[in-house]
Specification:
Elements (H helix, E strand, L loop, with lengths): L6 E5 L4 H12 L3 E4 L28 E4 L6 H6 L1 H21 L3 E7 L21 H14 L5 E6 L2 E2 L4 H11 L11 E2 L2 E2 H14 L3 E5 L5 E2 H12 L30 H7 L6 H10 L5
Parallel strand pairs: 1-2, 1-3, 3-4, 4-5, 5-9, 6-8
Antiparallel strand pairs: 7-10
Helix pairs in contact: 1-6, 3-4, 5-7, 7-9
């Protein structure tokens, strides 16, 4: 007798990460449903779910991945009440309900649960967020971890994928021989979305509980990213004109110096290591919409 494939519910199927996860798990043979809050997209594979006022008429699932959130730091700072309703209250209501139905819960979280004051944060370090988004993610983490063996958290740094709007805009400008102004004092440790899907897949297959990390190996500035793009296009490097993020009035909470997290367990358990900056960026650029 052939057993049925495992079932997966992705909360936040309209997000870039949610869509990538759906593709990855379908290829692996999972039965995938991905929620949407867009009423015109609701069908058998896309149940309606709005975390601002979550209904619990959700399909049964072996594993639930929570990747819907208000992730803009500025939005969380200016409207903490509304964003907390989504990022904490609604998220945990779904997590607790689905865990009660027997599902394993995986919450996608963020390096912003830390203050960014030092690199390679250990998963056992106490959260010390410096922004409202980080405080909300820390609260959601605590709620999922309270589920015990049914709860797991995956913290992420900046996730990038082909077609990233920032890179596409820079590419258009450089192609038109127009200067670009990346920040020299804003940092990222990018991780490709395909690697995120791989880590989540390992967690789901093993029903892993606890805290896991997926980040780039080292933080680099956005100027470094722009230089890789310009070199790939044979563009004039003089078109890169670095500016300070202070001039753009980016709040301190949105510009941590470090975003990296240690990945010792992921390397030991699944042979997954933090990707290096240049090959990660080069790969995303090569696979972009103009390739």
């Amino acid at each position: 007798m052939v057993s049925a494939p495992p079932s997966l519910l992705i909360v936040g199927g309209n997000s870039a990460i949610g869509a990538a996860l759906a593709r990855h798990f379908r290829v692996e043979g999972w039965q995938v449903q991905a929620s949407t809050r867009r009423t015109d997209q609701v069908d058998d594979d896309h149940p309606f779910l709005d975390l601002a006022a979550p209904n619990m008429d959700l399909p049964a699932a072996d594993v639930v991945i929570l990747c819907a959130a208000v992730a803009r730091i500025g939005d969380c700072e200016t409207d903490p009440k509304t964003t907390r309703r989504i990022n904490v209250d609604g998220t945990l209501a779904v997590a607790q309900h689905m865990a009660g139905q027997g599902a394993h819960i995986i919450l996608l979280s963020s390096d912003k649960v830390f203050d960014g004051a030092k690199p390679l944060r250990n998963r056992n370090d106490s959260p010390c967020p410096a922004c409202e988004y980080g405080r909300q993610k820390a609260a959601a983490e605590a709620g999922v971890m309270a589920l015990g063996e049914r709860g797991a958290v995956l913290r992420l740094s900046k996730v990038i994928e082909p077609g990233l709007d920032l890179l596409a805009g820079w590419q258009r400008d450089l192609s038109a021989n127009t200067s670009i102004t990346p920040f020299h004092d804003l940092y990222l440790a990018p991780v490709p979305v395909d690697l995120v899907a791989n880590v989540v897949s390992q967690m789901a297959k093993e029903r892993a509980n606890g805290v896991y990390h997926c980040t780039g190996a080292v933080d680099h500035s956005y100027v470094d990213l722009a230089q890789i793009l310009a070199a790939s296009m044979d563009a004039d490097p003089a078109l890169i004109r670095p500016v300070s993020c202070l001039d753009a009035n980016i709040p301190a909470a949105a510009r941590p110096r470090y975003t990296t997290l240690e990945m010792s367990i992921e390397q030991q358990r699944w042979n997954i290591t933090a990707p290096k900056f240049e090959p990660t960026c080069s790969s995303i650029i090569r696979l972009g919409p103009s390739s």
